[in-house]
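Retro notes, item 3 of 5
We never archived the inputs for the magnesium ion complex last cycle. Fixing that now. Sequence and ligand:
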Amino acid sequence: MRDVVKIENLSYFYPYSEVAVLDHINLSIKEGEIVVLTGPTGSGKTTLCLTLNGVIPHILGGKLDGRVLVDGMDVLEHDVAELSTKVGIVFQSPDVQLFSSSVISEIAFGPENLAIPREEIRERVSWAMELTGLKGYEERSPAKLSDGEKRKVAIASILAMRPKIIVLDEPTTGLDSIEAKRVISLIESLRNKYRTTFLIVEHREHILRLADRILLMVDGKILGECKPRDLFDDEKLMNSAYIRVPEVVKLFHLLRKEGVYRGRIPLTVEEALPVISRVPIAPSTVKSCNAPKDPRANEELIRMEGVSCGYGKQEVIKEVNVKINKGEFLALVGRNGAGKTTLAKCMVGLIKPSNGRILLQGRDIRDMNIADISPIISYIFQNPERQFFSMSVEEEVSFGPRNLGLSEEEV
Ligand SMILES: Nc1ncnc2c1ncn2[C@@H]1O[C@H](COP(=O)(O)OP(=O)(O)OP(=O)(O)O)[C@@H](O)[C@H]1O
Ligand SMILES: [Mg+2]
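Structure as it came back at the time:
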């Protein structure tokens, strides 16, 4: 099988930086292969992805040494538009790539640019929407979708271009379990049907399991590669790979340490079930653990009474009642687009309810301004880019405390 991606001795420096973010990388990917790239935050995974369609260096600048070939094309000799016909990238943050006024025009944009006949564009758009579960969203504005829905549009818009190579930078972040499964079966079916090649950045086991090869990236270098089974079988390797270890894998490593299990480590509950019944676990080794109750837990902090809210005429939250006490840890769960973010924004005063009332420490939020609200409740955005506006990390982090009127010393 031939190599569709070939990277030789690649080093890269962002503009005005003397640190090599990519450091002498060599990598070949065969047609139809699924390669998963993992490694700690800031290790250079996204940067490596961006070299494949020429965004690095043609748009972001900087200094690139070595060679990157995609389907035989040297990225230095072709522009981003040409390279995009071969490589489709779904960015880590979908906001970066969505700009059209409707979902359907967003997905049609790529094939329209490739000068594909109308009828075929229609077919491709419909196919991509079907695969990503976006039927019914045709006329919605991408800017007004939930983050999970945006990610699906970003994936669909790349699928519609039918690129040979698809690069997915953390594709299941923010997706609920059903949507994540949809992405997984999409990857498998595209590979099997069209021999599409995938480079995927991920830390989660459900994607790692799909990989033909897993590459570990640290400080701009690819330190090594392995098969998924070997990774999950080797505790030391797993700990150095910065991945999320499935609970079932942790359990079997524990049993192995206890000396009661000697076989291969199962990766899923389904694989574990036939094995676990043969593991001799003494009842005394199973201990229950109850977290101590927080004594402050009776002090009410937030109360929502019959709260409804939404965007324009569209009501997203309908008559919600919630009570949250001091020291409580609450998880808000639900499918993509169910209204979790909207509810949270409502709770911190970023969206006004159309009905009902919200009390923070007994005070109605309508009578409070940001200065009153922010010492009680803070909101960290799903997409961190939306909350940044300063020029440096230090300025950004000190903005909040300074705004609260703290002394410079304390800030
Ligand atoms: N536009 C940029 N200009 C300068 N430096 C950058 C730029 N983008 C990223 N970097 C730096 O390059 C390094 C690698 O970043 P990159 O985004 O490739 O990491 P990553 O492995 O994808 O991390 P994460 O897991 O957090 O997404 C980091 O030190 C980062 O601070
Ligand atoms: Mg990244």
